[in-house]
Amino acid sequence: xxxxxxxxxxxxxxxxxxxxxxxxxxxxxxxxxxxxxxxxxxxxxxxxxxxxxxxxxxxxxxxxxxxxxxxxxxxxxxxxxxxxxxxxxxxxxxxxxxxxxxxxxxxxxxxxxxxxxxxxxxxxxxxxxxxxxxxxxxxxxxxxxxxxxxxxxxxxxxxxxxxxxxxxxxxxxxxxxxxxxxxxxxxxxxxxxxxxxxxxxxxxxxxxxxxxxxxxxxxxxxxxxxxxxxxxxxxxxxxxxxxxxxxxxxxxxxxxxxxxxxxxxxxxxxxxxxxxxxxxxxxxxxxxxxxxxxxxxxxxxxxxxxxxxxxxxxxxxxxxxxxxxxxxxxxxxxxxxxxxxxxxxxxxxxxxxxxxxxxxxxxxxxxxxxxxxxxxxxxxxxxxxxxxxxxxxxxxxxxxxxxxxxxxxxxxxxxxxxxxxxxxxxxxxxxxxxxxxxxxxxxxxxxxxxxxxxxxxxxxxxxxxxxxxxxxxxxxxxxxxxxxxxxxxxxxxxxxxxxxxxxxxxxxxxxxxxxxxxxxxxxxxxxxxxxxxxxxxxxxxxxxxxxxxxxxxxxxxxxxxxxxxxxxxxxxxxxxxxxxxxxxxxxxxxxxxxxxxxxxxxxxxxxxxxxxxxxxxxxxxxxxxxxxxxxxxxxxxxxxxxxxxxxxxxxxxxxxxxxxxxxxxxxxxxxxxxxxxxxxxxxxxxxxxxxxxxxxxxxxxxxxxxxxxxxxxxxxxxxxxxxxxxxxxxxxxxxxxxxxxxxxxxxxxxxxxxxxxxxxxxxxxxxxxxxxxxxxxxxxxxxxxxxxxxxxxxxxxxxxxxxxxxxxxxxxxxxxxxxxxxxxxxxxxxxxxxxxxxxxxxxxxxxxxxxxx
Length: 853
Known about the structure:
Elements: H1 2-10, H2 13-31, H3 44-55, H4 61-78, H5 85-95, H6 99-104, H7 117-129, E1 131-134, E2 137-140, H8 143-153, E3 158-161, H9 168-182, E4 187-191, H10 195-208, E5 218-220, E6 234-238, H11 240-246, E7 256-259, H12 268-284, E8 289-294, H13 302-306, E9 312-315, E10 322-330, E11 337-342, E12 350-353, H14 361-373, E13 378-381, H15 385-402, H16 410-423, H17 430-433, E14 438-441, H18 447-458, E15 464-467, E16 481-485, H19 497-504, E17 515-521, H20 542-548, H21 550-558, H22 568-582, H23 586-591, H24 597-612, H25 618-623, H26 629-646, H27 648-651, H28 660-679, H29 685-697, H30 702-722, H31 732-768, H32 772-776, H33 781-787, H34 792-799, H35 804-813, H36 821-830, H37 840-851
Parallel strand pairs: 3-8, 3-9, 4-6, 4-7, 5-6, 7-8, 10-17, 13-15, 13-16, 14-15, 16-17
Antiparallel strand pairs: 1-2, 10-11, 11-12
């Protein structure tokens, strides 16, 4: 009965006209920055609200979306002038089960005494149904979140797929915290795709597991220096590469494994590693519970099935926050006029006259972000790191030109600026842009600064954050508005529909806003057409895709001389298949792929033939899944042959804390072997990387490393000019970006992989020679490269969860440079960070850690 009435109303031309007019009025209010409107004389609003109340009882998702749109638009337009409109909003949102939306406005539907008793009872019953017991107290959830919580309560593996703003991760993390507090589980691993997300998820879990019942679990974000034994309750928040290191301990396992942004299992070499890590953890713990978190995907059930799980699937296409896609058009013939329209709306376009012409893409993006975003919180998408800095600078220029810098956050912005200048470099553009309320955010920025920018934005001390595709990696940085102009993902690759809608979900977040605005600039010029494409993508698997390119893979397997400049997905796939062959699991792996018998046989034969040519031990091969077995074999052959001749000390990596000259020369020798045996190259680049890596591992501050490169560039130019060459120096900002990239991509990734391979290979060679004591004392160079420290105390602070910057500053206040994590924790308990002359961001980081005991 209700569904028939709802369908009849929605198909009525008068309803459609009234609905269109309301939505257009709300858009005009937003774009023209109009305050609350007086109560309308037209009875159409009353009719719409009555319809919305009925739509809230419908099972039709489209009707529910329109109910939400009507209720929230009416409240934003007329809530200040119409008595009883808040009550209507409470009734409709209660029927929709959107209690987080009600609570953030402090409306608390069923408790409103102005509502008739039957409606109060109805709202109270709905809220009770949607409320769960969490570690921090009762949580009122949306219908989707409540259904997801119920799925988790069954003890089954769960795959959840929903729009970005649906609050999936929020539910998973709260349930993990609840199970740890109750003692139902004692160990959890959460795999996230980036280091930026590691810090964010670890911080969220830290808050959820502090102050509740039960023991506070240890949260580990980097592999520990020593093998774990009886650690008690523990949460591992790591990338798949870091978790792969944990798996080198044969006893490592967890009770629950959650994979965030799980659809990225289909993306290249890292997707291959992700599948391998999950496979290994499942193999060790068959009763493991697996949870997969992903945006809207067509086939989320494919993930539990891949790992042999029947698992529950909880999927929705509905968002509890409305995302308004606003099309902005700048006519090249009239470049000082902007036309705005709502996607899908037939209403007349709104026209805005600007004070200047807009021509260049970056200028257009920056000016429109200011024009339509001022006074609100805004994310601006840029295609790369240089573009990030440029757009941020242009927004600042517009703000300064119109003289609209908000003076209420001057001190907080100055503190953030000092943090950037002191711990990256005074010439880093971020130190200047934050003073105007504009930050930027990309993956290579040091973690403490990323966190500081996120916190400043969350506290509304920054009005704009310009971001790269780190937002697509799940970083939770919600805003009212999102601005995009011809977005790309990676080098010149147009953004597809799945990524577009994943990014669009950052505009307006559950519990923060009723709606968000996605400003799409000059859509006609975009390389892709995401608005016309299906927003749901298909989950596929990078391992299967690489194997499906059989001829390409076979050629690589047979090429023993391939160096480092080969596609990483081929290396990782070859390593994975060879490990499976050695463990007699290859048939099981190939069974999960759609291969005909001919291709399957060719691959199995090629892997078997390659294995017969290799003397590389299984443990070494398993420990290094991201380096081609052929390259590993070259290094192994070299060490087996030469270590007995030249002695252990000649091949032993030096500890970074030793004498500078001696340590540098020995590290140069090690890096030369890496370059020759693993990369197949004979340049002298290894000298630069050994020097740079040594400075980094000794804990040298990032500003000093950057200044060293700036000075080196100045010397290069001066020497060249003396020789009559016309050379130009590089801009400091360019050099800073290059150093940050070198740290993240080379020191903390490429060289970590290669030194892990070197250490595990050397360890095995020494063990086979009977040199067990020497094998045990190989310095943990991969860890030192990963964390940028080698002092035991500084490494211990980092293992406890502090950033490199905070750990370095704390070490300077400690007399003991040889503290293990437990002693480091005791030292933190004894010392008040507010008395240690630390930046405010470092003090907050230490206090957050101390709250966890």
